[in-house]
Structures are given as C-alpha cells and as structure tokens.
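Kindly review this record before class:
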Amino acid sequence: MDVRALGDLLVEARAVTPEACAAWLAELPSAGELVVRARMLPTLQAHEREIAHVLAARIGAPVLVLGESTLDLRALDVLPADVAVEAGALPAFLEGDVLTVAVATESDAVECRLAAVTGRSLLVVLALPDLLAAAATLARTLRAAGETTLAGPRSTTATPCLALVRPPAAAAPAADDVARALGDLLSAALESPASPPTGDGAVSPTPPAEAGRAASRSLGALKLKQVRRVQAPPQPLSAAALLGGPAPIASPRDLIELPPLPAGDGPRALVVEDDDAIRTLLTRVLRADGLVVEAAGDGRTALALMRRRRPDLVVLDAMLPEIHGFEICAAIKKSEQWSAIPVLMISAVFRGFDNARTIQEVHGADVFIEKPFDLRHVRHVVADLLQRPQPVEQPAGQAVELAELARARAAEHHAQGNVDGVVEAVRQWLDADPFHVDAWLLLGRAEAQRSDSLAALRAFERAATYGRIDFRAQIALATAYESFGFVRRARAVWLRAAACAPDETAAQKIRSALAAWR
C-alpha cells in the first residue's frame, strides 16, 4: 500500500483531518516516503481499529488488529524466515493443522507458496502494512530469544489470541435461505453409501444462516479461542420448499468422463501433468518401458482415476489446475490405504535443494525432479521406485468396504448424538478414501458441532476443493466463509455454487441474492 493510499485510509477512518493528511503528503518531494510514513506511524498505532474497519469494508475480508492481539510465536517455526520475509508474511497463530498468517496484500501466488512450504491449511488475514512490518521484525527477534508470545500494547491476555475486525454484515437473504435449506438435503450423507458417491446426500453446511450471524457477533473483535465456542442452533427448514422439490445433485465423479481402463499386466502408473506435450511424452516413454499408464491433465481427474483403480506409481506435477499436486501428494501419504504408493513429483516452479527437501519432507514425495528433466533420469527413478518392496495389494473393493464400515459407524454415532465418535469414524473413512467429498462435509459439520470453527472451515475447504463442481460442497464453504467475514471469497464460492446448482431455480436464487448483496 503506497503512502497516498494509506493517507486516504487515515482520512476515511477519521484518524486525521484531510488538511493534516495533505500536509504530510506535501512533504513527499523533499522528505521522501520513509519519513512521511514514519510521521503517520503514531496515528496508525493509535487508531488501528478504526482504520482496520475501513480496510475490511473495502476489501471484503477480516483485518488483524495487531495492537489488540497476542501472537503465538511458535507459529514462526512452521515457516522459514527467509520465505516469510520474501512473502511479507507473519505467522500469527497455530491451531492443529491450521496456520493463521497475516499479510499486507492478498496474493494467490503467495498463499500457494506458503501452503507448499508449510504443508498446512492456511487462514490468511490482512494487517496494516507498516504495523505488520514492525511486528514481524519484533516477533522474529523475540522468537530467536526463546519467547513464545508477543502481546500487543492493547492486548488484554497473555494467551495467544487474534483480534480481527470483519466487514460490515451483508444482507444476502436468498443466499442464506439456500444454505439453510440445504440442511435437509445434506443430512442424507449419513444414510447414503460411502462409495461410489452418488451425490444424493451431503452434510449441513455449518454454520448456516443463524450460525453465520452468531459467529458474526463474536467476530466483531475475533478471538480465535472464542470462535471455537460458537455453536449453531439447528435449522429445521424444508429444502424441497425452497428448491422446488428434491433434485439430484451431481457429484464430481458423475460428471467426469473417464476413459476405459487400459489393458496390460505391467505396473500401473498414473501421470498427472497439465502440460499436454509433457504429459504425452511421459505417457509414451513409460508405456514403452512396459508400464500400464493412465494420464490426467488436472487434479480432479487424477483423483477420479486413482479412486477407480489404485496405481503402483504416481508421477505428479506440483502445480495443477483446481487441486495442487503437493496437496494430492500429502493426502496420499497421510492415507493409511494409499501411503505406500510411490510419488515422483516434478515442477518448473519449485526449484533448488530447499524446495526439493520441503516437498519431500513436508508433503511426503518419494522423489522430486525439476523441469526441464532428462527422460533417462526419470526412467531410472521410476524403475528404482517400482523395485521397492510393495505391500500386499488389498482385494478389489476392500477400501470401499472399509470406507462403508466407517461411514456406518459415523451414522451410528450421529444417531446417538456422539459428535466425537462421528469425527473419529469419519477420519477412518478418510483413511480409506482421503478425497471423498461426503466425508469431508461430514467432518466439517461434526467439527462445527464441537465448536471448532477453524477445523470445520478446513474440512469445508477440502470438500469444495475435491468437489469443485459439487453444489453441496460449494454451499458449505461459501456459508463458512461468510461466517468468518471473508466476504469476497464467499461471493466467489457462491458464484461457483450457482454454476453447479442442481437446477436453474436454485442457481437463480443465488444469483439474485448476490445481485442484491452490497
């Protein structure tokens, strides 16, 4: 943010008069930007909350009030200092698998880079740039000295917590109605078979309308520890009444046309690469070496192919459309059923020894090769990976059976009101099938019922990623983003939901709501 934009924020927040701001800016030619920003700094510190409110309204996303927060300095250990400095990022809070990172400017490229390096789910929030830079420098100094927290001058607790301000509440009644109404449709996930997914059932998107409003009230100055206590009341509303009758909801697997299974008795390889020429070349070379090769140009198709037939080897590009390769790799290696599958990752974006080590250590890749690569080297690596002792392959359908048993246990715990049991059973389901949309949706609802909003958001993000054109998953994530104050992200996901709605009536309700959403 340049100094003039910063001055506009100060004026709009009524932290200074237009005349005072003009006097500061008049010094730019003679004093330079650094001096002018230094003059503005005390005002920024004194009026941080008011300025954050203005910025949040402008960008449609929560803004961190550093002066009222207590940072968890252990979060700095997750992100290498050089990467954090280069990205202008301050790791601020670590809860389980979710890392909250403060940045001065939103950037998909930066977020992707941080996710790749940390292997964590990210919650990215904005902060005022000058205050963020000062806090980041102090945080690194204190962490090097062994400190575990950094309390802002107006923080009221020594326990790590973040104070956020969110955009003004937006009125989107029709969109809220759609989300609330899905509760009836989505609860069917517990009654439907675990695999193959039919798309007929899903999970209640949590928190829906009233949950969003309840969360919004506590998010006026969000303390992440407090958000975990937000619990939504039930939403007994008929989906059929709103959506004009039950309609089939297409699942991604129904809408991906998979080629016939290739014939052959050799080792099975899956090549996942979005560059057509490289994908074709790798496929041809590996087939010439006796492998039975299937190929995919995006992450979603790759997941469908993997779920159809377990490969003996995966050659995986790190950067893919829709679902990144390193995320697929991490999910494979964390799965009890799939972790033994060798993964060879390739990339032109992530280069050098440090990135190779990160991809192998953080995401679990067996081998990492930079592009451009020598085909002879790739062939030797593939041969070496296939020479490793292979576990006894499960009989066909055993993973499906394990997933179904876990789903049945989740249904039983759900009927008994045992939310912890539901979470445990769904995690076993995900061990058997780590990319099942219904499982992630169920986990999101259960985590929300346990008042763990961050874990619920992470699960809904996974569901929406793996079910990119799954209406239920997009609705769940859009509603969750709204509850956290990520208005702009919520709008983008609502648009995706409209694009994959089960019928035009539902799509039009969402579009009409968004048109009225100011």
Notes: Residues 212 and 397 are 40 Å apart (CA to CA).
